[in-house]
Amino acid sequence: MAGKTPVDAIVKMLSSEAPERRLAAVIVLGELQAKKAVPELTALLGDGAPSLQRHALDALCRIGLTQRALGPVWPLLGSRDADVRTAATEAIASVGEGVVGEVQVRLGEAEGDERRALEGVLSRLGGAEAFDVLLAALAKGDEESNRATALELRRHVRDADAKTRKSYRTRLERFLKKDHGGVAAAAAVKVLGFLEDRATAPTLLALARDAKQPAAVRQEALIALRFTMAEGADKDLLKALVDAAAASDRSLAQTALMTLAAIDVPATHAPALARLALHPDLSRAQMAIEKLGSLGGKGATETLVEIVARGDKRRAELAAAALEDRADALAPLVELLAKTDEQERAKLLRQALRSRLGGLTPAMKKQLASRAVEALVEDAATAEPLLSTAREAGAAIAEPLRAQAAKVRKGRNREAEMRALAGLVKIAEATPEERYRLATLHLVDSHRDPRTRGSDRGLRLLSELQRGGFDVATAMRKDRGAELETLYYVGFCFLEDDVDGGEELLREVVDKGGRKKIGKAAKNKLALEGIDEP
């Protein structure tokens, strides 16, 4: 009878009552890959001690398990100990593809941890057969279990070569053509995205755009598109994303927005974002405007300018801010300021242009000046922001205003002439003669009542002129359009307010009024002031 070998001695230790001796024996037998110890090691799997079970499974893997020896291993897939489940998964997978059929059968009844462990076996095995079993499991799973199944399928596609990945894509697309329900379809779409294959884009795009699909399926399709469109979105994808981002379903919209933020959008597709940038929901509009601001190119600039032109105050402000550092925005912003007829929008544009006025070309300055003059004469709401912008830019305003004043004067448009002359006064370019002309135009509308002279713009201008050295009395005496009532009113007020020229004007009224009532009134006023007739 042959003597016992050292391996026999170690195998005998497996029956020791000391747990540490049994554990040590298991580890050594695994290292020795002792095939004769398989029955004893397999028997230990029912021991119930997780540590011993785990090491026994590891030893069996090292020695080499056969499919017939898996009987005690299968129950451990449902162990409460996660490490034991993992070790059992590895042990079963080590046998090879021959276990796929058994796994598939067991999957039909398994739940929870056991189901995930069985799927883990399939993911470790890899191959088309295991992939199909996992894919079929999606049709029977709920949302939570399918999430785990999808992750196992991810391991498949991650480790597969190009040819195998292509076959996986075909299988997934075939699966999606059948009605397995929204939960299964959503998980399959998620796996399709894991392929990161641009060839999946048409399928994903169709699902994302299909309003009949459950929201979860459309959301997963939008997420998957982030990976398939890493090189940049095409026109169809961008339209689908914008449509979804504008949808009433907020979850779907949020997913679309996140996808938009994650992918590269070619600058040529910038106009497609304009609709979303004008969405009633400010958060969606803000994201679209930020995305536009990150894009280069003329198209993005023009789209942002369009939002400044069409959006409400907040959206226009956001778009203007996004244009701040864009050199190609200067000309279109000037153009928009020259065209807009909205005061608040013009003010916003003035603010947007303020920091870059030094970059205006002579042609831009001329455009602003011309429009500012027109706006002043037309009494447009945008006159003030246009005028201030043109002035700050150093545009020539005075001569165009002066020319316009002369033009409308010939046309006998008093209101327009007043606005043109007032513009010259505002920019401090009016001559004394022009200021005098403006004052006389204001006096046409005056009540010529000394009691309300404090609010009389024409009289105030004449007083300023007189105090500034301009001979108002002489100018009015020579002015053929100045009526006696006007001379009396100005003279009376000047005399009352101690402004030079009052006496001279009243004497003029006395001389020309003679025995008329107005002449007598002027004579009486001079007498009251103690001024004798010459």
What's the rounded overall pLDDT mean? Answer: 87
Q: Beta fraction of the residues?
A: under 5%
- The helix content, as a percent range, equals 55-70%
CATH superfamily of the domain at 1-95: Leucine-rich Repeat Variant
What structural class do you assign from the helix and strand content? Answer: mainly alpha
Tell me which CATH architecture of the domain at 1-95 applies here: Alpha Horseshoe
Compute the number of strand runs. Answer: 0
Shape label: rod-shaped
Determine the N-to-C terminus distance.
Answer: 165 Å
For the record, what CATH class of the domain at 1-95 applies?
A: Mainly Alpha
Keywords for this entry:
single chain; about 525 residues; mainly alpha; Leucine-rich Repeat Variant; about 70% helix; about 0% strand
Question: In words, what does this structure look like?
Answer:
Helix 18 runs antiparallel to helix 19 (313-322), helix 24 runs antiparallel to helix 25 (414-426) and helix 25 crosses helix 26. The radius of gyration is 45 Å and the shape is rod-shaped. The model has no long low-confidence stretch (mean pLDDT 87). Among the domains are: 1-95, Alpha Horseshoe (Leucine-rich Repeat Variant); 441-534. The chain has 31 helices and no strands. The protein has 534 residues and is mostly helical. The longest helix has 17 residues, at 143-159.
Short description:
With 534 residues, the protein is mainly alpha-helical. The chain has helices at residues 6-13, 19-32, 38-44, 50-63, 82-93, 100-107, 112-125, 128-138, 143-159, 162-177, 182-194, 201-209, 215-228, 235-245, 250-262, 274-277, 282-294, 298-310, 313-322, 330-339, 343-354, 362-378, 383-392, 398-410, 414-426, 432-444, 457-467, 472-478, 484-496, 502-513, 517-528.
